[in-house]
Design brief:
single chain, about 170 residues, alpha+beta, Beta Polymerase, domain 2, five-stranded mixed beta sheet, two-stranded antiparallel ribbon, 8 helices, about 20% strand
């Protein structure tokens, strides 16, 4: 069922990107972590989307038309996620910060479950995870680092640029 939802979301997001309704998207979350490290269980699919806030209702409608039960949620003034689209097993976060937009722009095409999917690079995925800061996110960072696919120079530059404590993710892995 998760694979079906992934395929539905990819079809919708790819069409919207190709038609100019969104500027791009990238896989984040547990599936993205599994692209760079040993697979881990996840119950949902997380995407980061670059779009104008005026196009979000179009995105929700396209997801609904594809058979997904989608709704747009708007956060408050202090909410770190101003726009979130929930669609069944999908969480689509609308990029609102520079590092999120860069994560989309710098994504890498990876074969995930038989589909070529833009996935946040290991370095940007670490930044996203550290900014989220939940315990599961910190464990994901450790898994990504342990896989030894991270450009440590780029990661150090990004942690400095975006004000993330490098000691958190480097730990004893370095």
């Amino acid at each position: 069922m998760l694979l079906q939802k992934l395929n539905q979301a990819l079809d919708v997001l790819t069409t919207l990107r190709d038609d100019g309704h969104i500027y791009g998207f990238t896989l984040i979350g547990g599936l993205a972590v599994s692209a760079w490290s040993p697979p881990r269980a996840t119950m949902d699919i997380d995407f980061l989307v670059l779009a104008e806030s005026t196009n979000l209702n179009h995105l929700v409608k396209a997801l609904c038309d594809a058979g997904l039960n989608a709704e747009l949620r708007r956060g408050g003034y202090d909410d770190p996620v101003p726009y979130l689209i929930r669609a069944d097993s999908l969480d689509i976060i609308v990029a609102s910060k520079k590092y999120e937009a860069e994560a989309i722009e710098q994504s890498v095409i990876v074969d995930v479950l038989g589909r070529d999917i833009p996935v946040a690079s290991p370095e940007y995925l670490i930044i996203l995870k550290l900014k989220a800061g939940e315990p599961r996110d910190i464990l994901d960072v450790q898994e990504i680092l342990a896989a030894n696919l991270v450009d440590r120079v780029l990661l150090a530059e990004l942690t400095t640029r975006y004000g993330v404590n490098p000691d958190i993710q480097m730990g004893e892995q370095g």
